[in-house]
Amino acid sequence: MSVGRFLGGIMALVRELENGRYLLLQRASSKDVGAGTWECVTGRVDQGEGFEQALYREVEEELGVRPEIEFILGTTHFYRGLASPETELLGMAYACTIPTASVIQLSAEHDAHHWFDAAELVRFLPEKHWLLPVVARAEFMRQHWPDELRAYFAERPFDLS
Q1: What is the distance in angstroms between the CA of the first residue and the CA of the last residue of the chain?
Q2: Please, are residues 67 and 96 in contact by the beta-carbon 8 Å criterion?
């Protein structure tokens, strides 16, 4: 198999600390892929950027606020639209926090937003929605993440470069 070409992407599952709710964003009706669907903050990694830099940039562009990274949720491999080398992405999924829901300023990339606790989110999204296992993993990790590990990563970036 030949060396591949693909894009890098990030996903930020944003949770507000004040009430522990997760943010869902409705993609703008003008979007070429996934118009009107519900998602979290997503975006591509620009040339010369690392995953963490892209995460901060994308959240600031889409929400007008700088998040705190809690932990890495995992990696992802997907296609933006139809499967082709031009639409293939490898991504990093992050769990992030912001202090309160009132600080966000929605960009034109989304038509609406809503805050949900984990149980409400499960009832709101369709049964096979890609975000359901992401939120389930975030909830599990928050419950079982040792305090020492949480403190360690609160002081250090995840980026090893």
Answers
A1: 28
A2: yes
Report yes or no on whether pTM surpasses 0.90: yes
What is the dotted CATH code of the domain comprising 7-151?
3.90.79.10
Predicted confidence (pLDDT) at residue 1 exceeds the cutoff of 70: no
Mean pLDDT, residues 124-135 taken together: 96
Sign of CA dihedral 67, 38, 23, 128: negative
Q: Are 47 and 94 in contact (CB under 8 A)?
A: no
CA dihedral 63, 111, 43, 133 (to 10 degrees): 100
- Per the listing, tokens 């992407």 go with 9
Burial letters for 14-51: b for 16+ Cβ neighbours within 10 Å, e otherwise? bbbeeeebbbbbbbbeeeeeeeeebebbbbebeeeebb
Ordered by start, the domain boundaries in the chain are 7-151
Strand partners of residue 69: 96
DSSP state of 125: S
Cα gap 68→72, rounded to integer Å: 12
